[in-house]
Amino acid sequence: MFPAFFFVINMESEKRMRTNHEIDYRIHGSEMQCVEIELDPQETVVAEAGAFMYMDHGIDMSTIFGDGSKEQGGFMNKLFSAGKRLLTGESLFMTAFTNNSSGKKQVSFASPYPGKIIPVDLLQLNGKVICQKDAFLCAAKGVSVGIEFQRKLGTGLFGGEGFIMQKLEGDGMAFLHAGGHIIERELQPGEVLKIDTGCIVGFTSTVNYEIEMVKGIKNMVFGGEGFFYATLRGPGKIWLQTLPVSRLASRIISYGSGNRKEEGSVLGGLGNLLDGDGF
Fold first, then answer.
1. What architecture (CATH level 2) is domain 12-257?
2. Where are the domains of the chain?
3. DSSP 36-70
């Protein structure tokens, strides 16, 4: 039995409205988090390949095409659903975990890098959330994991995420993962927030997403922030991350290459030689 702070979505009104599988969950940890999901008999959760951490005896794991939301559509619909995932850089396959026992069972999924797991109740968010391509971690069965094409050429070419982002649709629970600390904002109608494109985790369907060019030649060439930033216009909810994984990876690569900036050091590159990293 889970303690009282276990997050339970079991309001009678919501039960009548939900068509996706209804799951309970608990998030463990601070920086390297995992989400533990409690499944009632015959409930299923789907997850990205490689996200699995552990599960109770009685839960069966199966590999499926796409997200498993097109059960009655036949092989071609399943293949089409899986093919869309290739456009977002994900695998053709996802993993489904079903509780085939007679009692409640738990399965857990871990975050792939330091950051936070974000629970998203699609029923409370008009049934749709748009997110960066690698943000999706897992969801209740029935949640559709598709693609969202950016309508404007400039947004697609320079938006950091390209023409394609992920979209989550349905009325169940989904879980996103992002790097560093998560900031959640509720934009009012007409309110605009300018953001580094890599710091966007996701936003609701009512938010307008566009790309603007940084003004001023000096800012563009010497500012170190790139040529473009994103503008999100309300109304709607947005989620931002303080540490995009691309930013973390580039810093690690720069240190591994031996071409460190040596911030604050008067020795600069000579310091690499003195501490043995210049060879």
1. 4-Layer Sandwich (3.60)
2. 12-257
3. EEEE-TT-EEEEETT-EEEE-TTEEEEEEETTS--
In degrees and rounded to multiples of 5, residue 60 shows phi and psi of -105, 135
pLDDT at 71 over 80: no
pLDDT at 82: 55
Q: In the structure encoding, which two tokens stand for residue 208, read together? A: 């307008």
Question: Phi-psi region for residue 78, left (φ > 0), alpha (ψ -120 to 50) or beta?
Answer: alpha
Please give the distance of CA 268 from its chain centroid, rounded to a whole number. 38
Provide the pairing of β-strand 136-140 with 105-110.
Answer: unpaired
The DSSP element (H or E) to which 236 belongs, if any, is: strand 236-241
For residue 120, give the nearest of 155, 163, 171, 164 by alpha carbon: 171
Overall pTM > 0.85 = no
Please list, in sequence order, all residues whose beta carbon lies within 8 angstroms of the beta carbon of residue 99, skipping any fewer than 6 positions away.
Answer: 39, 40, 41, 42, 43, 44, 58, 59, 105
